[in-house]
Structure formats: C-alpha cells, structure tokens
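Sequence design from tokenized structure. All designs in this work follow the same two-part layout: the structure record, then the generated sequence. An example of the structure record is given first.
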C-alpha cells in the first residue's frame, strides 16, 4: 500500500492528480447544477400560483358561481407551498428570519383561504370586484418586490359587513407582508 502512495513513475502521479481534479470538478458541477433544487429558487412561482388560484376563486365567487375545483386547487397549492417552506429548513444558509417570513406568509395565505371559504358558503357576491383587483395587483407587486422602485397600492375599499372586513384585513396583511419584504434603501434619494 505504501508503494501506491509514492509511485516510481511520474506518469502515475500525474494521472492520479488528473483523476482527482476531474472528480472534484464533476462533483462541484453536480452539486451546483444537477443535484440540488433549492426551494428558494422556486418559491416565488409557488406563491404566485397560489395567489392566482385564490384570485380566480374569488372572481368565481364574485360572479356568483363558486368553483369548487378552484377551491381545491388553491388548497393544494397552499399545501405544496407549505411543503416547500418546510424543505427550506433543510437548506444551507437559510436564516431564521427568512423561515419566519415564509411561515407568516403561509399563515396569511391560510387565513385568506378560510375567509374565501366563508364567503363562498355564505353566497355573498356584492362588493368583491375591488378585492379581486387588489389580489391581482398584489401578485404583480410580489413579482417585482426585489426591484429598487415599487410602491404599495392604496387601500381604498369600503366594506359593509364582517366577512368583507375579514377579506379586507387579509389582503391588507398580505400587502403589509409584501412591504416587509422590500429591500432596504442603502442610499438616500436626496443626494
């Protein structure tokens, strides 16, 4: 075994070093290109899919024909999002704040979903169009949240009953969560 560590032929040492370097390069490429599917890369797509399904379901409630299939699709999208957030715990370099942010979003998504269930069961159709527009606008802002310049839309909706108030609060909390995700301004605009 000692003779294999110190080969007499320099070509053997060269081939060993080349073989080792090739293995290192292949393993690095595999780790960064092929093997991992980091949740962080795909989480935005899951969030947008969930919000779009919730918005479509709210639109169907507003039209007076609540689509049960959309309800279950939105619920399945929320469960998939929850699963992906739980996978983030296994990833390296995931901060506690990032996990807490996504878990808070899951809670907000669940409360929104439950409020829509109550709206669908009560058959309330009036005054839901502005909420549909706000959810659609939220999805657009979410996609652009890491750009340096964006702003939150003003909340200009009046509500008449308690369930609509719940929906207004749920959407307002989604906007507040989105505002929390805004990157910090490191330089002043007045300079």
């Amino acid at each position: 075994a000692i003779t294999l560590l110190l080969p007499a032929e320099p070509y053997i040492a060269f081939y060993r070093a080349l073989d080792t370097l090739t293995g290192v390069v292949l393993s690095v490429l595999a780790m960064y290109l092929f093997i991992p599917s980091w949740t962080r890369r795909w989480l935005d797509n899951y969030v947008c899919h969930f919000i779009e399904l919730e918005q479509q379901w709210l639109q169907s409630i507003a039209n007076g024909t609540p689509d049960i299939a959309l309800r279950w699709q939105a619920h399945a999208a929320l469960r998939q999002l929850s699963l992906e957030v739980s996978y983030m715990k296994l990833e390296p370099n995931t901060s506690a704040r990032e996990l807490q942010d996504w878990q808070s979003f899951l809670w907000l998504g669940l409360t929104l979903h439950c409020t829509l269930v109550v709206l669908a069961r009560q058959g309330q159709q009036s005054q839901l169009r502005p909420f549909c527009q706000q959810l659609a606008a939220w999805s657009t802002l979410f996609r652009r949240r890491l750009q340096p310049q964006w702003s939150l839309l003003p909340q200009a909706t009046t509500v008449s009953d308690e369930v609509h108030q719940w929906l207004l609060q749920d959407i307002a909390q989604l906007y507040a969560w989105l505002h929390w995700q805004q990157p910090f301004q490191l330089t002043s605009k007045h300079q």
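The mean pLDDT is 79. We note this feature because it recurs in several other targets discussed in the main text.
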